[in-house]
Amino acid sequence: MEITDVQAIPLAHSLPDGQGLGDARGFGTDRGTTLVRLETDDGAVGWGEAFAPGPMATATVETMFADDLIGMDPFEVESLAERSYTDPYHFGGDVVVQSAVSALDVACWDIIGQHVGRPVHRLLGGTHCEELTPYASTMYFTESDRPIEQPIREAVEEGFTAAKIKIGAGLESDVERVRTAREILGEDADLMVDMNGNYRPHQALESARAIEEFDVTWIEEPVPPENLSGYRELRKKIDTPIAAGEAHYGRFEFKELIDDRTVDIVQPNLGRCGGLSEARLIAGMASTENVAVRPHIWNSAVGLAAAVQFAASLSSYPHTRNVPEPMLIEFDRSENPLRSDLLESPFDPSGGSIDVPQEPGLGIEIDQDALERYRSD
Fold it and tell me: Which residues belong to any copy of the Mandelate racemase/muconate lactonizing enzyme C-terminal domain (predicted)?
């Protein structure tokens, strides 16, 4: 079996004017990503996602990888990330390169799964897993005025039992948003907060102490992703677990997060971290430092599918059945047809659980009409 065709397919969707949403750093109206489609000589098709703007990701796939992939056996998938670090030299750590590698890697795993008749999470060494616990990624900052409680109330009505909300716009705002979310979610629900790196360490510390009474499960990106000393400073001063990783890519950057427990939770994005091969390596490194792994997802349905399969493969180490800790999987609740419309059978997080596809590979079928509708090339 060998790869005979490589296609990069940029996708985009824009929100209406005045309907931008985002985080404490600002608003956005555009959702974009790049899918990769691989086909083999026996007719198998594999899908992956490069969580990067279309023009850059497409050019990277076509100029740096496509020629070498033609004729490649998909079972050689784990060589892709390694080659990206060494050929071309010095470019492997670039986010767009790693995003392209991520898409190609996931597409290869999708084909391998189809070839052997197994879902990806079983190929990665996971035990049989049929469902995960989704958490609503919601309560974004928005251009339009709306009650801050509206999105978290909608998430509860949909059946979510956990949620992550945006904070990071100042102490008073942080406390109000976290208090509101906790009151609506209830005392027993997991509640995470995301500061999106908008604070200096002393500001993040002040906020963390002010919201501690609301029993926050983790604080995500309290300082900028490159501020490793800030993460280490905060870990010494607060009890709430710290999470990071969506803006990191490749094994070497994640090693810096994991070493000496710089953070408590790493969050590889399967469309950016180097794909399933790198994510599995990252998870192995994390287990040696007893750091938890929870994938980050703000992708299309293909990136979501890869993250679901990866999350389903993760070990519960060091837990036994006597220390229950659900594998939480992020589910963005903002408007995104690249997630909601792209599959023949979209993922459904309602009711407090999300099914793990048991079909071979990623277990998804692309809706070709939707694919053409959102193509941006």
Answer: 148-241
Residue the block writes with tokens 């008749």: 117
Pull the structure tokens for residue 24: 């404490």
Which class would CATH give 3-117? Answer: alpha beta
**97 contacts: CB under 8 Å, gap ≥ 6:** 60, 64, 84, 91
CA-closest candidate to residue 114, choices 197, 216, 26, 39: 39
Helix (H, G, I), strand (E, B) or coil at 261: helix
Catalytic annotation, pick one of 90, 121, 296, 319: 296
**Cα 330 from Cα 377, distance rounded (Å):** 29
Dist. CA 212–CA 66, nearest whole Å:
50
| Cα distances (Å, whole numbers) of residue 258 to 20, 252, 254, 262, 264 | 34, 10, 6, 6, 8
Distance between terminal CA atoms of the chain? 30
Catalytic status, residue 13: no
Amino acid at 296: H
Domains of the chain, by residue range, sit at 3-117, 121-355
Closest-CA residue to 167 (of 208, 136, 226, 224): 208
CATH assignment of 121-355? 3.20.20.120
Q: What is the DSSP string of 322-348?
A: TS----EEEEE-S--HHHHTSBSS---
Same fold, 3-117 and 121-355: no
| pTM of this structure | 0.95
Counting Cα atoms < 13 Å in the Cβ hemisphere of 328 gives 25
Instruction: Determine phi and psi for 348, rounding to 5 degrees.
Output: -120, 110
Bin 363: left if φ > 0, else alpha if -120 < ψ < 50, else beta: left
Say if CB 331 and CB 148 are below 8 A apart.
no
CA distances from 248 to 313, 318, 342 (A): 21, 25, 26
The three-state secondary structure class of 12 is: strand
Residue with tokens 């496509």: 66
How many residues are given for the chain? 377
